[in-house]
Amino acid sequence: MKIVGLTGGIGSGKSTVVKMFQELGAVAYIADIEAKKLMNSDFDLIQKIKKLFGNEAYSKGELNRKYIASIIFNDAKKLTNLNKLVHPKVREHFINFTKNLKTEVVIYEAAILFESGSNTMCDYIITVIADFEDKIERIMKRDDVSKQQITDRMKHQLEDDFKIKKSDFLIKNKDLATTKLQVKTIYSQLLKLPKN
What does the DSSP 8-state code read for residue 61? Predict the structure, then answer.
């Protein structure tokens, strides 16, 4: 079984690419979704988040995402500390997730693959990129946010160039047909490659 990290900036179309890999037979683990679940269910993690952000971090038993976001987008240290709490839990959860899988390729999708150090557990890495305007349009449609809010979020992510240099494969997500073809090509290559 090969663990393939899949990353890319906000709005690059990672979710679409992951679905394409799943259609070909890969199993996917979406780190952001699992992290959110763990922040709402893991007792130890909940206590640590409350200690870091105060009791307002949770509202009606759920993570108060708006409150947390308002803090971490203005306080890099708090964001780093939150990541230090969440990422080890996600990694542990992922290892358990893969234990009984009978598949050749597991896609580990994470926006902050390198920042979280999760790249170290991957055999291969794919970066998804898209044109700036396409990304903006995609996010505005999806999240109902302003262009300014999006560019603020982008500032918190590593540059595409950094990710590309550290990746084994690159997917340029412009139109669905071309992207699908790139995914198919990479998937067939991954099946032939040895586990790293």
Answer: T
Cβ burial of 80 (10 Å; 0-12, 13-18, 19+) is exposed
Q: Please, are residues 137 and 180 in contact by the beta-carbon 8 Å criterion? A: no
Homologous superfamily in CATH for domain 2-26+103-192: P-loop containing nucleotide triphosphate hydrolases (3.40.50.300)
End-to-end C-alpha distance for the chain, whole angstroms:
10
Q: At CA 169, angle to CA 166 and CA 173, rounded to 5?
A: 110
Q: Spell out the domain ranges in the chain.
A: 2-26+103-192
Contact of 184 with 23, CB cutoff 8 Å: no
| Whole-structure pTM value | 0.89
pLDDT tens-digit map of 22-57:
999 999 999 999 999 999 999 999 999 999 999 999
- Rounded Cα distance between 40 and 114, Å, is 24
- What 3-state DSSP class applies to 116? coil
HSE (side-chain half, CA atoms, 13 Å) at 59: 6
Q: What does residue 121 show for φ and ψ, rounded to 5 degrees?
A: -100, 10
**What φ, ψ does residue 118 adopt, rounded to 5°?**
-70, -20
